[in-house]
């Protein structure tokens, strides 16, 4: 988009390179530069809050889920919802700095508590408590995922030679120029040769 904007302003085109390794490293290091930010030569990579063992999807009674209370209020609501009123006034809940220094132990508590309910029970409870939570889906769960069903993510189209086939809708929506998969399927061997090299050319 930046290159297109530059072209509109100046009329000049430019080459845009998007290397995968550097792009992914830059994305991931947004947090993990952490202590290395002010080093003379960056070496101390890793954001401790994100690297503790239980700050990740946790096992439930029948699957896995991510539960992410963040603010003091959310942590208090979480412990109230799970019947741990003894934690509501605990310094790990009431003071973010202290919680951050003990975040591994806090998330270990979440991991242990998560085993006591099913994933669906957790989703209902966290929605009621207004705490971010999301189930971890298996590939086999995707065709029956209610959100994907509601958005029409999976679609069946008629291929000119293969018949009815399943595919996915383009995930990005454009209000004026909607993307489609069904108007031009993947070409068969040699299908577009003349379009590319021109008739009669070798």
Terminal CA distance reads 37 Å
Backbone CA Rg = 25 Å
What count of structural domains? 3
Strand content: 5-15%
CATH architecture of the largest domain: 2-Layer Sandwich
| Helix content estimate | 25-40%
* Class inferred from helices and paired strands: alpha+beta
How does the overall form come out from the CA principal axes? extended
Instruction: Tell me the total number of β-strands.
Output: 5
Mean pLDDT across all amino acids:
90
Question: What would your notes on this structure say?
Answer:
By secondary structure, the chain is of the alpha+beta class. The protein has 10 helices and 5 strands, in the order αααββαααααβαββα. The chain folds into 3 domains: 46 residues, no CATH class; 85 residues, formyl-coa transferase, domain 3 (2-Layer Sandwich), CATH 3.30.1540.10; 45 residues, no CATH class. It has a 3-stranded antiparallel sheet, with helices on one face. A hairpin with a 3-residue loop joins strand 4 and strand 5. The model has no long low-confidence stretch (mean pLDDT 90).
In short:
The protein is of the alpha+beta class and 202 residues long. The protein has helices spanning 2-10, 20-32, 48-51, 72-81, 91-94, 96-101, 103-114, 119-129, 146-151, 193-197, and strands at residues 58-59, 64-67, 133-135, 154-159, 163-168. It has a 3-stranded antiparallel β-sheet, covered by helices on one side.
